[in-house]
Write a structure and sequence with these properties.
The complex is a heterodimer. Chain A is mainly β. Chain A has strands at residues 4-7, 10-13, 19-25, 32-38, 44-51, 57-58, 67-73, 76-81, 90-97, 103-105, 109-113. Chain A has no helices and 11 strands. Chain A is globular, with a radius of gyration of 13 Å. Chain B is mostly beta strands. Chain B is built from no helices and 12 strands. The chains are: A mainly beta, B mainly beta.
Chain lengths: 114, 113
């Protein structure tokens, strides 16, 4: 199957700093990528849909100025958590689809904000 | 709004026991259905999917799921689990024509050796 890679897998930062997470589709082109947040013992919460060459579509309740998404190419989307705070600590997962219907997931990025 | 319910949050089984994880969704139209698995320390990967056709779908590692439209269900089954099946299982729904995938809350399965 298609491969989606996320980097970094773990990041620890100080409160107030910004963190960038990359999501790459390694062997296919993804016009659409999805960013999820996974809370402990909870499901994946869709944060936003990243569209290549256009603005991301954010879900209700997700601050677009805090979670900046850029989809500059058909194989790369980035999520930047700006001015991170401890409550932003979470597991962030990206996914992409090669064909309609099936999602391929990245390994996830665990963010810890001190 | 569409939603997906997984009623079993934690399941503990002994090896060789049979498994059935429930998944119900709320949407009256055509849906595509998925089961994803997340092994400890690994990323989510597809177990099986239903788009159309035979409602009994066979996936990897001996898993199968049955789509019952009248019950809005897509339960996951395996006749005999192994210790290596210990993982978290997510049911998901995608409505064709939309960009959204709706995930259930997940079921943590622990198989005792």
């Amino acid at each position: 199957g298609a491969v989606v890679s996320q980097h970094p897998s773990r990041v620890i930062c100080k409160s107030g700093t910004s963190v960038k997470i990359e999501c790459r589709s390694l062997d296919f082109q993804a016009t659409t990528m999805f960013w999820y947040r996974q809370f402990p013992k909870q499901s994946l919460m869709l944060m936003a849909t990243s569209n290549e060459g256009s603005k991301a579509t954010y879900e209700q309740g997700v601050e677009k100025d805090k979670f900046l998404i850029n989809h500059a190419s058909l194989t790369l989307s980035t999520l930047t958590v700006t001015s991170a705070h401890p409550e932003d600590s979470s597991f962030y997962i990206c996914s992409a689809r090669e064909h309609p219907g099936e999602l391929f997931f990245g390994e996830g990025s665990r963010l810890t904000v001190l | 709004a569409q939603s997906v319910s997984q009623h079993n949050h934690h399941v503990i089984l002994s090896e060789a026991a049979s498994l059935e994880l429930g998944c119900n969704y709320s949407y009256g139209g055509t849906v595509n259905l998925f089961w994803y698995v997340q092994y400890p320390g690994q990323h989510l990967q597809l177990l099986l999917k239903y788009f159309s056709g035979d409602p009994l779908v066979k996936g990897i590692k001996g898993f199968e799921a049955e789509f019952i439209k009248s019950k809005f269900s897509f339960n996951l089954r395996k006749p005999s689990v192994q210790w290596s099946d210990t993982a978290e299982y997510f049911c998901a729904v995608w409505v064709p024509g939309t960009y959204k995938y709706i995930f259930g809350t997940g079921t943590r399965l622990k198989v005792l050796a």
